[in-house]
UniProtKB/TrEMBL annotation:
Pfam families cross-referenced by the UniProt entry: zf-CDGSH (PF09360)
Cofactors demanded by this protein: [2Fe-2S] cluster
Ranges of residues in domain Iron-binding zinc finger CDGSH type: 44-81, 82-119
Any GO molecular function: metal ion binding
Organism: Salvelinus namaycush
Record's signal peptide: none
InterPro entries xrefs: CISD, FeS-contain_CDGSH-typ, MitoNEET_CISD
UniProt keyword list: 2Fe-2S, Iron, Iron-sulfur, Metal-binding
Keyword Glycoprotein tagged: no
Protein name per its UniProtKB record: CDGSH iron-sulfur domain-containing protein 3, mitochondrial-like
GO CC aspect terms: mitochondrion
Length: 138
């Protein structure tokens, strides 16, 4: 059975089974929010994109756009504190645009995705060891 930890409107924390979660949300006892102030990783590798010189592009900085790597306006509801980045290439070229949304050189990839991949790998390995330790205890 799926168990979810939730924060109730009065500030207390509750552990709910899936059926209880739906009842709590339906009765508005649980505070739900889909907004974020941190970008989400759209992909772990950069997007290779052909661009036209002199044309204005809008790069998604929040990671919620369905038209990655470009903005579709999803930040307005999912990440209102994150604004997209406007850029105009000088000439026709192929660019590597950041998909992990952690670059320091937006909208261009600066290799930061390797750190994102590494963090994900470390997290996955920790989960495997944690599961193995739980199995040994049982």
């Amino acid at each position: 059975m799926n168990v979810i930890l939730g924060t109730m409107r009065n500030g207390t924390t509750a552990t709910l089974r899936q059926s209880q979660l739906f009842a709590a949300v339906a009765s508005s006892r649980m505070q739900c929010s889909t907004q974020t102030n941190k970008p989400v990783v759209a992909a772990k590798m950069p997007f290779r994109v052909k661009v036209t010189g002199g044309k204005r592009y809008v790069w998604c900085a929040c990671g919620h756009s369905k038209k990655q790597p470009f903005c579709d306006g999803a930040h307005k509801t999912k990440a209102p504190s994150i604004s997209p980045r406007h850029f105009t290439p000088e000439k026709d070229s192929t660019l590597m645009l950041c998909a992990c949304k952690q670059t320091k050189n937006a909208p261009y990839c600066d290799g930061t995705h390797f750190k994102v991949i590494f963090r994900h790998l470390v997290s996955s390995v920790k989960k495997v060891f944690k599961m193995n330790n739980l199995k040994k205890m049982a």
